[in-house]
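Hello, quick one for you while I still have it in my head. A protein chain has come my way and I'm curious about its shape. Can you walk me through what the tokens say about the fold? No rush at all, and the record is pasted right below.
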Amino acid sequence: MDAGPQQGTGLRLDSDTFTVALDKTATWNNGVKAQLSGFSRGTSGEYASPSGKAYLAFSVTMQNGSKTSIDLSMVSLSCPEGAEEVFDTDAGFAGMPDTHLLPGKSQTWKAACVFPRTARDAQIEITPTDTSSSGWYRTAIFTGQVR
């Protein structure tokens, strides 16, 4: 299975990554898509992990246009510059959904990364996995400026 980026990304097909603007949709050759939206800033709560940290919050939408299910609990999300992902159930940041995304279905969840209040350049990486055959997909690197 070729789970690389669709044509037009300007990257070599043998690359392990492809780059997408923060406000665009990453599309793998097999029809799986990921999109980030609803960017906002805040501070993690007292019972969050980590607590009291400035964060960048966003929604992640995965759409399964492939012929096999995707285990969303196995999707890898990496925050800007290796920052920690924020887990704050009071704010709705509970990590990846613990479910399988069937072909033709989509799911959206909230995520947040530790992100300094003065930072503007964001780089968020998403790597789905295919437990039915070839393993990890290529990594989509979402990059751009946030307010």
Notes: The CA atoms of residues 121 and 145 lie 5 Å apart. The chain has no helices and twelve strands.
